[in-house]
């Protein structure tokens, strides 16, 4: 297990003996403060970097700490009133006119703002709360950052993932008679929503997706596995069973319990990708023609290909009226990735799974991934180098995702 930054962040949190009592997020506290999640309080995060730990604890929400964030009072509500009417000889009582304030349009969120906000929220679950051994009667905890991300420059031909290395990975299940077939992959992006490929949702050879599971790397594991029923399937409105707009959302019947084994990935919101490589993962077939998938979660580092290179790969399918790729590779909504030096690739069964980047560490975001693509289609997996696969570009659909996942 690798601990990010080579250190353990110890934050002593007093659970019982707090002068503030059990307050909730948004409650006023102290002389001039508001109860906030610790990651939402800039002063607290700045203090942590200096080794100063928060002492005014409002309470807890699950494993998340809520602290008293000083000098963070809510903006006062200003009510406009008209002056008292001048009294005339009229016997009618004076009237008061209420002037309505115009809505503050500057508070409207731009596409991607909500996704970034939720990324910070979910980053808390990279920490594991561990009871501290003290002589004090009060219960105390230390928060340990669990970060098994392997920072290697290139993974050749696929490598077994470490436990908890890709906590956003979801496996999708299809009912075949009395048996469950686990086929496509997906990415957990909120407590109840999974991002996947539209071709994995409807029209799959096994029927509609029914189940979703996560929290494991080896398919024989049971300790941390969470299984949910899929109750809503949302294909992108422009998807028409061709290669374009191959993106969908799945909603499950109840929230996943977030922890170091299972937590959402962040959404990558920019079109430009300032890196040469990315990481794909899945339980798909390990080579072309070998069915059944992998028992272990596998990862592979892939290089980006230009649109021209990708169009050359799929030129036989382009400009044909009956082709599902008749318009060629669309750079705005697709990403091409593969290997120029070996046969690394995603394979059958990896469809719908994520193409990710490691999110840059920040004071309030550590050990997180940005999902940039969704495995869509490709040629025979791993048979030759210079045959990139195609991934749906997530940044092109951020507004649509936010409208469905976080409508408020």
From TrEMBL:
Residues 78-111 are annotated as: Disordered. One of its GO terms (molecular function) is serine-type endopeptidase activity. Residues 81-103 have a biased composition (Low complexity). GO terms for biological process: proteolysis. SMART domains: Tryp_SPc (SM00020). Gene3D superfamilies: Trypsin-like serine proteases. It comes from the Eukaryota. Residues 155-406 form the Peptidase S1 domain. It holds the Pfam family Trypsin. The keyword Protease applies. Residues 1-21 form the signal peptide. This is Peptidase S1 domain-containing protein. It comes from Phyllotreta striolata (Striped flea beetle).
């Amino acid at each position: 297990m690798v601990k990010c930054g080579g250190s353990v962040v110890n934050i002593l949190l007093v659970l019982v003996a707090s002068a503030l009592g059990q307050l909730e997020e948004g409650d006023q506290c102290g002389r001039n403060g508001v109860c906030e999640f610790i990651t939402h309080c800039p002063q607290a995060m700045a203090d942590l970097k200096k080794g100063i730990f928060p002492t005014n604890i409002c309470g807890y929400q699950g494993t998340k700490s809520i602290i008293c964030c000083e000098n963070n009072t809510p903006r006062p509500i200003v009510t406009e009133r008209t002056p008292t009417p001048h009294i005339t000889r009229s016997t009618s009582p004076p009237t008061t006119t209420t002037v309505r304030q115009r809505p503050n349009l500057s508070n409207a969120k731009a596409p991607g703002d909500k996704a970034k906000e939720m990324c910070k929220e979910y980053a808390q679950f990279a920490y594991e709360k561990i009871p501290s051994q003290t002589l004090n009667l009060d219960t105390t905890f230390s928060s340990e950052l669990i970060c098994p991300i392997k920072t290697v420059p290139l993974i050749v031909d696929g490598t077994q993932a470490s436990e908890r290395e890709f906590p956003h990975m979801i496996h999708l299940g299809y009912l075949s008679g009395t048996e469950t077939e686990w086929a496509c992959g997906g990415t957990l992006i909120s407590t109840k929503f999974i991002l996947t490929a539209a071709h994995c949702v409807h029209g799959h050879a096994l029927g509609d997706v029914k189940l979703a599971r996560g929290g494991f790397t080896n398919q024989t594991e049971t300790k941390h596995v969470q299984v949910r029923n899929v109750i809503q399937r949302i294909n992108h409105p422009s998807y028409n069973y061709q290669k374009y707009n191959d993106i969908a959302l799945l909603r499950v019947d109840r929230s996943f319990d977030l922890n170091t084994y299972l937590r959402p990935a962040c959404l990558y919101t920019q079109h430009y990708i300032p890196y040469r490589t990315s990481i794909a993962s899945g339980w798909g077939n390990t080579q072309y023609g070998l069915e059944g998938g992998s028992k272990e979660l596998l990862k592979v580092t892939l290089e980006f290909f230009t649109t021209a290179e990708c169009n050359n790969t799929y030129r036989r399918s382009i400009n044909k009226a009956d082709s599902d790729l008749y318009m060629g590779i669309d750079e705005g909504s697709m990403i091409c990735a593969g290997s120029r030096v070996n046969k690394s690739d995603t394979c059958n069964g990896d469809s719908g799974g994520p193409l990710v980047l490691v999110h840059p560490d920040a004071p309030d975001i550590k050990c997180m991934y940005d999902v940039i693509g969704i495995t869509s289609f490709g040629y025979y997996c791993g048979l030759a180098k210079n045959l990139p696969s195609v991934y749906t570009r997530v940044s092109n659909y951020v507004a649509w995702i936010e409208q469905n996942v976080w409508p408020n």
